[in-house]
Amino acid sequence: MGITKEQIKKALLNSGYLLEDRVNQILIENNWSTIPNSRFKDLKTDIEREIDVVGYKYLNYYSPQVDNIDSTLLIECMNNKEPIVFFENIRPLPSRIAALNFTILNENFWSILSWTQSELKSKKTFVYSSQYCSFTKVQKLIKEFNNGWIALHPDIKHDSINSLFQYIQFKRTEHKDKKNTNEFIKGFYYRPLIILQGELLSVKQKKELEIKNRNHIKFQVAITDNGGKYFDIDVITEKHLPEYLKLIEEEDNAIANMIEKHREKLID
């Protein structure tokens, strides 16, 4: 006998597929174009991999020519059964917006992104972290320790983080020989985003451990090809996605205004 509809339902609810579908729909409802299960090649292994959802929008600003600059979200979705905890940094580490493709948009565009990112951060309060863990129950420890619960660094979450940057590296290579002209500017920049279906927490060490529920944490990751700075990965809960998209729209509008003022500086 084959699988029943009830078993299909339970299997789907236990997976991340439904979360991916909901995220895709929310992006479309907020006027983002989407590519579900966007495929790319891992440059180290030559194996094809995929990102759960890629969302992109063209920046809207006046240009004498038809420019095409994309704001792009690289999204990995996680149906985490147990909470994921991020350890709060005392202060944010120096970072820049993820994966500006310098061969398409020159260093002046990085300055525009950095300025708008700094402006937004000065107006908002974010929680920053550079370490995380989750939890699992070990049966043989149930009677010996903490009812069997231990903290660990889950590989599946680590793999999702790696996939985000492997995608960026692939796209950099794909476009490495393209140049802009005075007539037309084409480029893109990325924001890696992890969306959790389950609980997102932060922990701070004081006299006692302070554990808080969060909707948004900026996870700062050191990547060797980022000029000595960190990349921020936004980690949010599913329910926070609409509010997060408003935040991105605010930042993108500021970037578009700066590009309109300084367009001539972006030409190679």
Topology:
Layout: H1 5-13, H2 17-29, E1 33-41, E2 48-58, E3 68-78, E4 84-88, E5 95-96, H3 107-123, E6 128-137, E7 149-152, H4 155-174, E8 186-196, E9 200-205, E10 209-213, E11 216-222, E12 230-237, H5 241-262
Parallel strand pairs: 3-8, 4-9, 5-12, 6-11, 8-12
Antiparallel strand pairs: 1-2, 2-3, 4-6, 6-7, 9-10, 11-12
Helix pairs in contact: 3-5
Describe the structure in brief.
The chain is of the alpha/beta class and 268 residues long.
What does this structure look like?
The protein has 268 residues and is of the alpha/beta class. The protein has one domain (5-266). Helix content is 30%, strand content 33%. The chain contains five helices and twelve strands. It has helices at 5-13, 17-29, 107-123, 155-174, 241-262, and strands at residues 33-41, 48-58, 68-78, 84-88, 95-96, 128-137, 149-152, 186-196, 200-205, 209-213, 216-222, 230-237. Strands 1, 2, 3, 4, 5, 6, 7, 8, 9, 10, 11 and 12 form a twelve-stranded mixed β-sheet that branches. α3 packs across α5 (241-262). Mean pLDDT is 83; it is low at 99-103.
- Characterize the main sheet: 12 strands, mixed
The SS-based structural class is: alpha/beta
Mean pLDDT, to the nearest integer, reads 83
Strand content: 25-35%
Alpha-carbon distance between the two ends: 64 Å
Care to count the β-strands?
Answer: 12
Describe this protein with a few key phrases:
268 residues, alpha/beta, 12-stranded mixed sheet, 30% helix, globular
